[in-house]
Structure formats: structure tokens, C-alpha cells
Amino acid sequence: MSVKEIHSKPEITAATFPALHTFLRGYFHEDVADEYGTPLEAAEQFCDDAETDERVAVAKEWTQLMQVLHGRPVAEINQALTTKLGGAVRLSEEEVQQVSGVFTRCLAVKQRHA
Q: Residues 69, 76: contact at Cβ < 8 Å?
């Protein structure tokens, strides 16, 4: 394995993050405020609504995306979530952290039940 392969990060596309793309289009859409209140509440609702496999896939892809974008400005995170992955919600730094916490809890629940 070359050094480039070890350190390369996945391209941020709907094809690379298919579960996250589906989540963003279904929950982080232009009516998120009317339907859920906040992005945090939308993520929590998703975790309540989704089947375990879907919930875990989205949580893992969110975590992977946040690792890829670690240290990047929130504007770049929002560009990935909207332009590249199909969401319609722009998050604050605090909301990024809150949603990350929701998905961390989703993964922790799965691991306890596995």
C-alpha cells in the first residue's frame, strides 16, 4: 500500500456516502424548521424512526465524514452536507457537534445490543 493510499480521504459524493445522502435529503431539507424544529431534533427523530441497519449506516457515514472534514471550517462542512450530499440545512459549529453526538449515541446503542 502506498503512502497516498494510507492517507487518502474518500471523495465526498452521494455515491461514497449513500446512507448519509438519503438521510440529508429526507431529514435536513428546506422544511426542517417546520417539520422538526432544529437539525438536532431532526437527527433525533431519524434515530427514532429508522431501522437499526439504516441508523447505523448513517451514523457511521456521518462519523466518517466528520473525520474527513476534521479541522475544516464550518462553511466547508456545510458545503459538503448541502452541495455535495444533497441536504438543504446549513449548520452552526454547535449544531455539527450536537448532531455528531446524536449519531455517536446511535452507534453506542447498536454496539450494546450487538
A: yes
The parent domain of residue 47 ranges over 29-113
Model-wide pTM > 0.85: yes
Grid look-up 459549529 returns 93
Contact (Cβ atoms closer than 8 angstroms) between residue 61 and residue 68: no
Q: Apex CA 63: angle with CA 109 and CA 90, to 5°?
A: 115
Residue 21 lies in a domain: no
Question: What DSSP state is assigned to residue 82?
Answer: I
In a domain, 86, yes or no: yes
pLDDT in tens, 45-70: 999 999 999 999 999 999 999 999 99
Q: Which residues contact 78 (CB under 8 A, 6 or more apart)?
A: 90, 91
